[in-house]
Amino acid sequence: MQQTGLNILAITIFTVTLSVLLGPLLNISPYIPAGGTFIILSLITVDTLSWENKGVNLLINIFASAEQKERIIYHEAGHFLTAHLFNIPIKDYTLTAWETLKKRNGGTGGVIFDIDFLEKKGQDMREFNLLIERFGVVLMGGIAAEKLQYHNSEGGQEDLLKFAEIYAPITLTNSNLEMRKRLALLQATTMIETHNEAYLKLIEFMRQRKSVEECQGLLNESISLS
């Protein structure tokens, strides 16, 4: 979200510059835009350095459209379903920046995995490689879910960065990374399509903010009946 902060900074500078140019015509004191600039820049600086862009995330969430909020649910449900199918423990999930802030997590929201479990599994090299492949699919699950529903993906930049990070120790070239990314996306898409009925029910549960245990129970029941 650092790019978002820079975008807001650029918009602020443009707005202030415009107000300075139009100030004489509108009888606006030059001290007003100058004071406003100082306050806004100070808030952005504090938010970026001390709050990890949580303020920016909250602002974005407040003005997000209904479709954008729905996209987040579809996106995170894609992560949840693929993780569940791979038996990767899920601790919690959030769907808005406000929910994330209340639970003291970074970012705009998302599925929160049991990191301790992942670290224990990673002690054996074969299990580590398998876990990397599976977690890569889970990371692409959100993008796959968005594309299935909306035919494109607006989110997922953070997922792509994490994907590159986890494959960094074992991937030598960009072409190799892109190939792994396409394969992971294809597998995630297939998993969501195969269990589409369970996935749609999961979306409704997450929309209602059901607990992780309730969501997992729903998936276990739906998948066993399919």
TrEMBL record:
Gene3D superfamilies: Peptidase M41
Record-annotated membrane-spanning stretches: 7-26
Claim: Ribosomal protein is one of the keywords in the record: no
Gene Ontology biological-process entries: proteolysis
Keyword vocabulary terms for this entry: Hydrolase, Membrane, Protease, Transmembrane, Transmembrane helix
GO molecular function: peptidase activity
Coiled coil: none
Stored PANTHER family: ATP-DEPENDENT ZINC METALLOPROTEASE-RELATED (PTHR33471:SF7)
Name of the featured protein: ATP-dependent Zn protease
